[in-house]
Fold 3-isopropylmalate dehydratase large subunit.
Amino acid sequence: MSPKTLYDKIWDAHVVQEDADGTCLLYIDRHLVHEVTSPQAFEGLRMAGRKVRAPEKTIAVPDHNVPTTLDRAKGIDNEESRIQVEALDKNAKDFGVHYYPVSDVRQGIVHIVGPEQGWTLPGMTVVCGDSHTATHGAFGALAHGIGTSEVEHVLATQTLIQKKSKNMKVEITGKLKPGVTAKDITLAVIGETGTAGGTGYVIEYCGEAIRDLSMEGRMTVCNMAIEGGARAGLIAPDEKTFEYVKGRPHAPKGAQFEAALAWWKTLYSDDDAHWDKVVTLKGEEIEPVVTWGTSPEDVLPISAVVPAPESFKGGKVEAAKRAIEYMGLTPGQKLTDIQIDTVFIGSCTNGRIEDLRAAAEILKGKKIKEGMRALVVPGSGLVRAQAEEEGLADIFKEAGFEWRLAGCSMCLAMNPDQLSEGERCASTSNRNFEGRQGYKGRTHLLSPAMAAAAAITGHLTDVRDLV
Ligand SMILES: CC(C)[C@H](C(=O)O)[C@@H](O)C(=O)O
Ligand code: SF4
């Protein structure tokens, strides 16, 4: 048998039919659904008189539009948002899919709820009408976003028409230095490869620094595969993965678990498998990083200065000029001199319990800078409950943070959590595009620990200076 990558193995196990030109029909194991990209898909089914083919493999949860303030049971003011959430309530009921409504403690960001509930398992194909479906790749699943017409196709048939991507290996060797986290790895990789570096590829992240990460950290890394342009990102499952999955509500139990485990243990890239592209970074050389511009590839170590546009090549010179202007920065200015108005800790990149622990560790016994607006939005109701039990919520509140309910929130500002014009945010989310967090708002992406550090000092800060 010819050697295979992990991606090859999962792909081969799911091909239902292959055409001469390589177009395949893939079986889909899990279909996650949120309120933004599903209304037309369900409507299409309804109009055609079709059913959801596998409601038991379809999991829906509202996340993007939901308010995160404590009074959210009052309902949603914005009409468009309200219509989308109400449509999901109705569609989930009418079509009989698994559903976690806003009133359910298990509600949260779809990419946090899936793994938490044990829906996401190694070796699976997982899709969702959402680009950050890549998150689930942390379990050694082939997971990626799909468009609304594909959502309808998967709902109706539990299959997806796909062509295979190429194989890319991103290896992070050695150990990370203290203060350096999964978020710094994933940003550093995009800084290195650019936002188009992964185009046409599925990335497998490997190497000692990746192995050393917790499942939460691995999810953070895979989450941003999409910002690096890749179709998906994945990590071979190991004992940490199996341990995380075991006992989750929807994970297999008993003999079924043992049978699944036997297969999961075969899910790794063979030694002599072929890679179309390889990128290697040394773990010990990665610093805590932040973004200075309006693209996730605008990444620099926190010790750096705002770059001069002329230091870039070709088309990037103009883009850098515009980004620096939009961000209200000056070339040569130290990144640590950039003053921050708002801190947002949350999102499917960094809204898990470990992220909250990392931020709370820095904030313990401290207060945020006067005048700072700071919010923590746990990724799910269960993350929130756990953080309360561990005393993290008290640390956040005592420091001056708002302690919110679960949702996407200020990651993309589809609910009332938005930046105002010119407001500058240190954010643990994954996208820093113009206006992403509110009209003319400015975003600096960083890790939860770095976000906490900025909240305390009022400017971008090397977290290692605070510990
Ligand atoms: C709304 C949704 C389609 C979108 C995505 O696909 O990523 C959102 O989650 C985002 O992060 O921009
Ligand atoms: S948290 Fe942000 S990136 Fe993740 S699904 Fe929601 S909007 Fe998209």
